[in-house]
Recover the amino acids of this structure.
């Protein structure tokens, strides 16, 4: 199990001071929905509303990308990730790329 990692979308962590910035880190996931899933989703898109199959796939992909980000930051020696963000893009018509990225840092409680 990974040691505890503080992940924030801000530049600083309240109550902590930054000891060292280690640099950028990221976690990337590319997901594809199979032909059957695309067919069902396309039928649902005709009616309108949320397409639950894609929502679930993207939520899982974000969690997976965040897990990879934490793993990569840990391997760099970080105990925190600051300025964390998500980005996404379509690859072709059937794949989605999800990227979680931020700055790996070493922090300690403020004195």
């Amino acid at each position: 199990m990974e040691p505890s990692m503080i992940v924030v979308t801000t530049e600083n962590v309240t109550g902590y001071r930054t000891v060292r910035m280690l640099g950028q880190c990221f976690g990337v996931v590319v997901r594809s929905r199979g032909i059957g899933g695309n067919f069902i989703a396309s039928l649902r898109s005709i009616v309108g509303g949320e397409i639950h199959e894609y929502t679930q796939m993207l939520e899982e992909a974000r969690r997976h990308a965040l897990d990879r980000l934490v793993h990569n930051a840990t391997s760099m020696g970080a105990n925190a990730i600051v300025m964390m963000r998500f980005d996404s893009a379509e690859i072709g018509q059937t794949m989605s790329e999800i990227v979680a990225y931020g700055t790996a840092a070493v922090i300690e409680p403020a004195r």
In short: Residues 6-32+61-109 form a domain with the Translation Initiation Factor IF3 fold (CATH 3.30.110.70). The mean pLDDT is 87. The first helix runs from residue 35 to 47. The chain is about 35% helix and 40% strand.
